[in-house]
Structures are given as structure tokens and as C-alpha cells.
Write a structure and sequence with these properties.
The protein is an all-alpha fold and 408 residues long. It has a single domain, classed as Farnesyl Diphosphate Synthase. Helix content is 62%, strand content 2%. The protein has helices spanning 43-50, 57-60, 70-74, 80-97, 108-125, 127-133, 138-159, 168-182, 189-200, 206-220, 227-249, 259-280, 282-289, 296-301, 306-311, 323-347, 352-374, 388-401, and strands at 18-21, 26-29. Strands 1-2 form a two-stranded antiparallel ribbon. A hairpin with a 4-residue loop joins strand 1 (18-21) and strand 2 (26-29). Helix 4 (80-97) packs across helix 12, helix 12 runs antiparallel to helix 16 (323-347) and helix 17 (352-374) crosses helix 18 (388-401). The protein is globular. The two termini are 36 Å apart. 49% of the residues are buried.
Length: 408
């Protein structure tokens, strides 16, 4: 599932080669001069590229070195909580030291066009997330869009239409490409937007590495026995987004407390969002990917088997959702709501221009849980969502919540 990003990435598939950045012009070096249009393109070209694999020559080549094997991550001795804490420490230290990546020299019109493509992708595939970004300052908007598109491209490696062609070696190459981005060596103009973001905000590489490890987990692990196992996965594919975004949001200018507290709240929001994604997409994940993300030990407590989840749980006599599934879903929704509550603790510590966007995204995403309930807990045949009008009606209340800053 990984952020619940489905479908193809349209015109932003990774390309081979590198962008040679000179002060006056940008040229492509490599076999494929243009595998991805980032200027929008025609409707016909967009339709064509939507079906194209994200895995091109740059990922099919042998990696320079062997990285972590998927099995080693799944069977590692380090817990997900420890992995998360390690990344939190690294991100907080970098933000406090205000360390940015090296600047790249790319024509502003090239970057503007690439950022616009990032905006389009975010708007099309992450509507709730995009709504929150529209309440940010222009610079923060662009930075968040660049991060989102990198995350989406990463997710498409294992959940896209050509995921069957992705190998552990392809993920090794993707991680090498990530390192190049942090060193100011983008492969294409979409990479360049992330390079530009990293040169403006003190974002650490560790959560990006951890997200790639989450994709490695998806290659070999379609089930999670316990919530602790699921927690690690949720951190890697969603909590990481909170760590990536936190330096862009920034803390309130009068904040004197421990920045790690704010990072922990960001992690909680990522966890809450991913738990919500999992509950919303139970049917889709089971039907299309043979994946069950909800903890198997929880299913057993409610007397539910894996096969029943894969088939869909409906009463053979009434056609209604099975009572066991209703009770199970109530338990899962209650857990997710508690995590959303934990996330609230840090929102008002953020900079004033980030509080309203984050509150808005939190409130809207939490409402997906209400929509699951409104659907009678049928997440096998119905996809819960929040109508656009309801999203806009939530904005005033989110704005009110965002007004009072927390400075410690």
C-alpha cells in the first residue's frame, strides 16, 4: 500500500543519465534524452505515459554495491521503534544545526516547470494532502510537492503497474540515485526539484533510506503477525514522510521546547494516516495484491481467518457485513483515532504558516474513519472518502485550532 498511492506516475517516470547543471543551461547526458515529459504534455502523451513502467534503464542496471536485502530488514534484530528513533535523532540534529545540501545550478524556468509537474501529480493523486499544501507559503508548497513526488515514485516501484519487474537490485539503484540527489547530482528534472528543496531546508537523508527499506519489505512480506511488526512498516512508508516534512514546516518562531517532541507528533500523524489507509484499502489490497496489512493476531482475537478477509466478510443470509468484522473494525478505528490524538499534541508547535495546513490535513484524513463507519464497515466493496464540500466545510474549524501557538 505504501501511502496508498495507486496508479501510474504519468509523466514523471525516472530516467537514465544525469542532468549536467551549468549556470546557463541544462542538458541531458545518457542514452534516453527524454523518457519523461515534465511540461504537462498533451492529453495523448499523458495517457500513454500513464501505462509506462517507472522502472527504466536506470533501475535495471546493476547497482554499484549491494545494499540491505529485503529478508535482512524483515528479520532484523533492530525493532521498528529503534529504527524510528534513530531517524528522529538524525533529523532533529540536522534541523538544529541547519545543515542544507549543496545548491545546484539549474535554470529557474526549468525548475518552475518541474515543480509545476510535481504540483499536478500531487493534486491528482493526493487530494487531501494537496488541499493542506495549498494553505502553505509558495516556497513550502513547492518543497512538499517535491517530496511527495519522490515518495510516490518510490512507492510506484513496488505498487505500480510494472511492480513485477522490480528486484532488490532495482531498489539498490534507486537508493544510489537518492544519494546522488543529496549530493546535488539529479538524474532528471523531477529529481532536481528535490535537490533544490534540500538546498533550501535542512532535510536529512535517513527517512528517505528508511522508506526505500519499506519498499524492500513489500517485496517479501505480505502479512504482519503483530502490531509491532506493522508499526515498523507504517513508520517506513508513512512516518518517514513526517520526518521529511518537519524541517519544511518549521517550529514556531518562539518555540523553546525540545524539537524532538514535535518530530514525535509528526511521526504519530504519519502512523495515523497509514493506519487509516490500511483500513480504507482492505478490500483492494486483498483483491489486487494478496496483501493483508491488519495484524493477524488481531484477526485471530475476533475469530477471523485470512481466507475470510481475502474473500470479503458478508453474511450469507443477509448480505450484510459480518458482525465479527464490524467488531474488528471498531477496534482498529479506535486505535487509529488514538494515534491521531497523539499527533495533535505537536501541531501548534509548528510555525504559524504551517499550523493551519497540517490541522486541515489531519482533520480531513481522520474523517475517512467516519466514512468507513458510514459505509457500515464495508471496506471490501466500498472505498471510504471525504466529499470535497465536506473538506472545505472543515477548514474554518481547522483554522481556529491553528491560531494559538505552543512555544514549549
Amino acid at each position: 500500500m505504501s501511502l496508498a498511492m495507486r496508479g501510474a506516475l504519468a509523466d514523471c517516470a525516472p530516467s537514465t543519465g544525469t542532468i549536467a547543471c551549468t549556470g546557463s543551461r541544462t542538458r541531458r547526458v545518457g542514452r534516453y534524452e527524454r523518457v519523461a515529459r515534465c511540461d504537462g504534455g498533451s492529453n495523448a502523451s499523458r495517457a500513454k505515459t500513464r501505462s509506462r513502467a517507472i522502472a527504466d534503464g536506470s533501475l535495471l542496471a546493476s547497482p554499484k554495491s549491494t545494499r540491505r536485502r529485503p529478508e535482512d530488514i524483515v528479520n532484523g534484530e533492530v525493532s521498528g521503534y529503534e529504527v524510528e528513533q534513530r531517524a528522529l535523532e538524525a533529523c532533529a540534529a540536522r534541523q538544529l544545526a541547519n545543515v542544507m545540501a549543496p545548491k545546484i545550478s539549474v535554470p529557474s524556468e526549468t525548475l518552475d516547470t518541474a515543480y509545476e509537474r510535481c504540483r499536478e501529480v500531487t493534486a491528482e493523486y493526493a487530494k487531501t494532502f494537496y488541499l493542506g499544501t495549498k494553505l502553505m507559503t509558495p516556497e513550502k508548497q513547492r518543497a512538499i510537492w517535491a517530496i511527495y513526488v519522490w515518495c510516490r515514485r518510490t512507492d510506484e516501484l513496488v505498487d505500480g503497474p510494472n511492480a513485477s519487474h522490480i528486484t532488490p537490485e532495482a531498489l539498490d539503484r534507486w537508493e544510489e540515485r537518492l544519494e546522488g540527489i543529496f549530493e546535488g547530482r539529479p538524474v532528471d528534472v523531477i529529481d532536481a526539484t528535490l535537490c533544490d528543496t534540500l538546498a533550501r531546508f535542512p532535510v536529512d537523508i535517513q527517512p528517505f533510506r528508511d522508506m526505500i527499506d519499506g519498499m524492500r519489505m513489500d517485496l517479501v512480506k505480505p502479512r504482519y503477525e503483530t502490531f509491532d511488526e506493522l508499526y515498523e512498516y507504517c513508520y517506513r512508508v508513512a512516518g518517514t514522510v513526517g520526518l521529511m516534512s518537519m524541517p519544511i514546516m518549521g517550529c514556531d518562531e518562539n518555540f523553546t521546547g525540545d524539537v524532538k517532541k514535535v518530530y514525535k507528533a509528526a511521526l504519530a500523524l504519519g502512523l495515523a494516516n497509514q493506519l487509516t489507509n490500511i483500513l480504507r484499502d482492505v478490500g483492494e489490497d486483498a483483491r489486487e495484491r494478496n496483501r493483508i496489512y491488519v495484524p493477524l493476531e488481531d484477526l485471530k482475537k475476533f475469530g477471523i481467518s485470512e481466507q475470510e478477509v481475502l474473500r470479503g466478510m458478508f453474511s450469507p443470509t443477509t448480505g450484510k457485513v459480518d458482525d465479527r468484522w464490524v467488531a474488528f473494525m471498531k477496534f482498529q478505528i479506535d486505535r487509529a483515532r488514538k494515534v491521531f490524538k497523539d499527533a495533535e499534541d505537536g501541531v501548534n508547535c509548528l510555525h504559524k504558516d504551517a499550523r493551519w495546513p497540517v490541522w486541515s490535513a489531519l482533520d480531513v484524513y481522520r474523517s475517512i474513519l467516519d466514512a468507513i463507519e458510514a459505509n457500515g464497515y464495508d471496506n471490501f466493496t466500498q472505498r471510504a472518502y471525504v466529499p470535497k464540500v465536506d473538506k472545505f466545510l472543515m477548514l474554518p474549524q481547522s483554522y481556529i485550532k491553528a491560531q494559538e501557538a505552543r512555544t514549549s
